[in-house]
């Protein structure tokens, strides 16, 4: 799989709700950094962070608008939409950077987004 295909498949797993397949695409020592927040390192920490976040989320509808690859680095412009358990749809514009290691796993994942938009979308205000 090319680095671009790896990221597209990773997003597909989010959208299908196949979180175990998503975690399997991550290197054991992955670092996930949502830039307004503190980074987490390791699949276990990513799993904990996702579990804490996904409580009010029924499903994901992430859409990649643009994807660019330079070697093992993949840049995405996305809208990460979440259908919440109360029926609302929270959508967040995101720029994401993924670094794919030699084993074809995601080793670094950085997402850049506006925290005020995140709070407004998830807070319902």
UniProtKB/TrEMBL annotation:
Alphabetical list of Gene3D superfamilies matching this protein: 3.10.450.50
Chain ranges of the Limonene-1,2-epoxide hydrolase domain: 3-118
Molecular function via GO: hydrolase activity
Coiled coil: none
Record-linked InterPro entries: LEH, NTF2-like_dom_sf
Tree of life domain: Bacteria
UniProt name for this protein: Limonene-1,2-epoxide hydrolase family protein
Source species taxonomy: Bacteria, Pseudomonadati, Pseudomonadota, Alphaproteobacteria, Sphingomonadales
